Amino acid sequence: MFKSVYNWIDERLDITPLWRDVADHEVPEHVNPAHHFSAFVYCFGGLTFFITVIQILSGMFLTMYYVPDIINAYASVDYLQHKVAFGQIVRGMHHFGASLVIVMMFLHTLRVFFTGSYKAPREMNWVVGMLIFFIMLGLGFTGYLLPWDNKAYYATKVGVEIAASVPVLGPYIADFLYGGDIVGAQTLTRFFAIHVFFLPGALIAMLAAHFIMIRKQGISGPL
Amino acid sequence: MAHGHHSNEKVVYVGDSRVKKSNHPNIPPDYTSFPGKSEAFIPNFLLKEWMVGCVVLVGFLVWTIAEPAPLGYPADPTNASFIPMPDWYFLFLYQFLKYPYVSQDYILLGTMGVPAVMFGALLLAPFLDTGKERRFYRRPIASSLMGLSLIASIYLTVISWDHYQHILEANGTIPEHIEREEKAREAAEKGEERPNYTQPKEEASLVEANDPAMDIAKQAQCVGCHAADLKGQGTTPSLVGVGDRLSKEELAEVITNGRNNGAMPSFKDKLSAEEIDQLATWLSKQKVAAE
Ligand code: HEM
Q1: CA distances from A101 to A53, A94, A138, B273 (A)
Q2: Which of A141, B87, B149, B209 has CA atoms 20 to 30 A from the CA of A154?
Q3: What is the ipTM of this complex?
Q4: B18 close to A (CB below 8 A)
Q5: Neighboring chain B residues of A167 at a CB cutoff of 8 Å
Q6: Residue ranges of the domains in chain A?
């Protein structure tokens, strides 16, 4: 059944090369922890991706309940946390996952740095990686405001105040983020849009570039 | 069939097709130059990865169940005493900006100078460190710069956290998410409902607003300070709901003798004991909290 459906599609679209292109490659010994335990450092990129997927999935479920306005935001988070079945798990995964993904990303960056894997010909992938790094920090910053409790409110206030002290651009950045003169209704909807649409979109594009480059160049050789 | 092919044939774009026939050879990168035992990604390696992934996922789920994600009290823009605290991975920067020479008059150096140079260097690392050598112990400059930045960041983060704990202790403040959880637990132990901070408080108003005591309040100029609806103004507290805080005797005492060095004046001489009693009786009925 499955095979005949697959064949039916493959006949028309020739999809086999698409996935074979992704799937057919070898995992060399020097990055395989089954052979050298110390090769676990090469897993951090994959782990970062794993948790990124968790973040995206749990985030999608969060938006089923979350309401991005200043009257209901806190109440909707509170409701999700305490009343919705499995709500605590969904919110917990997204909350702790946000820290975990940053930890994994730090470790991955350090692995790439200390193995010198950013050197020619992989310079571009390092730069894309750093862009991902900044996007991740941006996701952390904008996501922090969304529960709309005091911690969220004041951290954002201080954060934007720091950004506003940047010369020339500062006031524009602050204006863009605040959408007004204080952290308020506009700020929350903006942060929500940035956190849920703009940055994940950019992240996915960058991840695609990251993976295509890895696939093209292969993993860096043993030291 | 537009292309006139045998219908069982794989799609081969030739003839009138606008898509060129691809001659791209699908050859995976060659790892024969790497020593040792390489392993096929699919299925061998991926299956192992998934098994590890499942274990991690279960551990993660257990963690989220054991440790609920924190939530404080609803944001209150007028709360002046709240100690702002960013998420942990921003602490190094937050702490850094507290030092003299990178804050206030030198804030330019703090926001643009140091961090921009550091992150700029990190971004452009492959173009700054162009040597062929990859082993970190053969790249003393790059490795020690990274090592130093790492130690500095960890140090700043720890100091920042310590500092925060210190302020909390000095002010006797419990972080809101902990206090909130504590209260929820206490309520649960007493079999009460979890305190709910999300319902907007019903606009409370005076109980028995037509009571003759209200006329006394007007005559005695209570309304001058406590406002016409007795809901308070400026630093003068609201009397709506005062019955939750003070008993009838305490109310009579406040009215008779005043409080806070006459900020709340004494009415001993202006009102009769009977009027004071009437006021206190009426005020003690001003309760807001649900029975
Ligand atoms: C969401 C974040 C990221 C994900 C999911 C991710 C994922 C991956 C994966 C799966 C690999 C394969 C090798 C490995 O697992 O170690 C890899 C390689 C690489 N990553 Fe990332 N990465 C991320 C962020 C970054 C960052 C922040 C940097 C550095 C600035 C970076 C730079 C690189 C480079 C240069 C390689 C090639 C290394 C080599 O060939 O040995 N990546 N990445």
Answers
A1: 10, 10, 13, 70
A2: B149
A3: 0.91
A4: no
A5: 108, 112
A6: 42-115+122-217
Contact across the interface for B87 and A10, Cβ inside 8 Å: no
**Contact between A130 and B123 using a beta-carbon 8 Å cutoff:** yes
Q: Which of B259, B201, B193, B250 is nearest to B226 (CA)?
A: B259
pLDDT single digits (tens) B231-289: 877 778 888 878 888 888 888 888 888 888 888 888 888 888 888 888 888 888 887 76
Residue positions counted in chain B: 291
* A42-115+122-217 CATH choice from 1.20.810.10, 3.30.420.40, 3.30.1490.270, 3.30.450.20: 1.20.810.10
- The pLDDT of residue B69 is 93
> What Cα–Cα distance (Å) separates residue B205 from each residue in B69, B218, B238, B287?
37, 16, 10, 9
Out of A100, A104, A108, A203, mutate this one to test ligand 1's pocket (max ligand atoms within 8 Å of CB): namely A108
**Chain A interface includes B69 (CB < 8 A):** yes
pLDDT digits (tens, 9 = 90+) for B138-186: 999 999 999 999 999 999 999 999 999 999 999 888 899 998 888 888 8
Q: Are A143 and B84 in contact (CB under 8 A)?
A: no
CATH superfamily of the domain spanning B69-178 = plastocyanin oxidoreductase (1.10.287.980)
A92 — contact with chain B (CB < 8 Å)?
A: yes
Q: Which CATH superfamily is domain B212-290 in?
A: Cytochrome c-like domain (1.10.760.10)
Put simply, whether B177 touches A (Cβ < 8 Å) is yes
- Model confidence, pTM: 0.74
d(CA A78, CA B74): 10
Spatial neighbors of A191 by CB under 8 A, at least 6 apart, are A142, A143, A145, A146, A156, A177
Identify the band that residue A127 occupies on the pLDDT scale cut at 50, 70 and 90: very high
Please list every residue in chain B whose beta carbon sits closer than 8 Å to the beta carbon of residue A82: 194
